TrEMBL record:
Heterodimer with TRMT112; this heterodimerization is necessary for the metabolic stability and activity of the catalytic subunit BUD23. Interacts with GRIP1. It comes from Glareola pratincola (Collared pratincole). It catalyses: a guanosine in 18S rRNA + S-adenosyl-L-methionine = an N(7)-methylguanosine in 18S rRNA + S-adenosyl-L-homocysteine. It comes from the Eukaryota. One of its GO terms (molecular function) is rRNA (guanine) methyltransferase activity. The keyword Transmembrane does not apply. SUPFAM superfamilies: S-adenosyl-L-methionine-dependent methyltransferases. This is 18S rRNA (guanine-N(7))-methyltransferase. Residues 236-245 have a biased composition (Basic and acidic residues). Belongs to the class I-like SAM-binding methyltransferase superfamily. BUD23/WBSCR22 family. The keyword NADP does not apply. S-adenosyl-L-methionine-dependent methyltransferase that specifically methylates the N(7) position of a guanine in 18S rRNA. Requires the methyltransferase adapter protein TRM112 for full rRNA methyltransferase activity. Involved in the pre-rRNA processing steps leading to small-subunit rRNA production independently of its RNA-modifying catalytic activity. Important for biogenesis end export of the 40S ribosomal subunit independent on its methyltransferase activity. Locus-specific steroid receptor coactivator. Residues 30-106 form the Methyltransferase type domain. Residues 176-251 form the 18S rRNA (guanine(1575)-N(7))-methyltransferase Bud23 C-terminal domain.
């Protein structure tokens, strides 16, 4: 449903923001549990490149139909991340990592699968980069298990919780540093304007403030469309020629 899509894209946007990527160059990101490529769309719109991994052939078929810009890999991340060392400038994952806590087969050991995932992810990330994994933990034990395996694999960092006092808007982001670590980013909705911690978080749409602070073209504007077409051309894809009508609003039909 469109509501799910909207929440998914908000979380992708927040995850990419928490990666703290350099603004002066395009990065290569890994999207773990990429599904139909909704997070990837946001990554592409920001001018970055991505590779998505997912265990569901059906979801990846949808991504292919949607002609996403990233490369796709059908695989179980519990078996590890099969890329060369230091390849990625960051990793995001939206509501996927908690599935590694489920033992679907007799041979599946959640701690082992989590450790395999985190240790190979650590290797595949460039030093000084981050992985931001949004997840829906079932309980605090699950959170502890996931965090413990990440730390065992060499990551530092911890949990960033957005809107901790709101049942609906509360979101968990495991923010991990590979190599050089910094201070953990602040969760949204955790303090008032005057810096006082609040215990009654109001859910405001804080996302809007960050929009285009970086001087990015407004989504769906003519410039945004031209930039997207230019990126596609550079990737060797067939793109319609630009004309004076590109990005122009259609007249309403009566």
């Amino acid at each position: 449903s469109s509501r799910v899509v909207e929440i998914q894209s908000q979380m992708s946007e927040r995850a990419v923001e928490l990666l703290g990527l350099p603004e002066d160059r395009p990065c290569l990101l890994l999207d773990v549990g990429c599904g139909s490529g909704l997070s990837g769309d946001y990554i592409s719109d920001e001018g970055h490149y991505w590779i998505g991994m997912d265990i569901s052939p059906a979801m990846l078929d949808v991504a292919l139909e949607r002609e996403v810009e990233g490369d796709l890999l059908l695989t179980d991340v519990g078996h590890g991340i099969p890329f060369r060392p230091g390849m990625f400038d960051g990793c995001i994952s939206i509501s996927a990592v908690q599935w590694l806590c489920n033992a679907d087969k007799k041979s599946h050991s959640p701690p082992k699968r989590l450790y395999r995932f985190f240790s190979t992810l650590y290797t595949a990330l460039a030093r000084g980069s981050r992985a931001v994994l949004q997840l829906y933990p079932e309980n605090s034990e699950q959170l502890e298990l996931i965090t413990a395996q990440a730390m065992r694999a060499g990551f530092t960092g911890g949990m960033v919780v957005d809107y901790p006092n709101s049942t609906k808007a509360k979101k968990f982001f495991l923010c991990l540093f590979a190599g050089a670590s910094g201070p953990l980013p602040k969760g949204l909705g955790t303090e008032c304007a005057d810096g006082e911690e609040i215990h009654q978080a109001k859910f405001t749409n804080e996302r809007t403030r960050f929009r285009n602070a970086k001087g990015k073209s407004v989504k769906k504007s003519r410039d945004w469309i031209l930039e997207k077409k230019e990126r596609r051309r550079r990737q060797g894809k067939e793109v319609r020629a630009d004309t004076k009508y590109t990005g122009r609003k259609r007249r309403p039909r009566f």
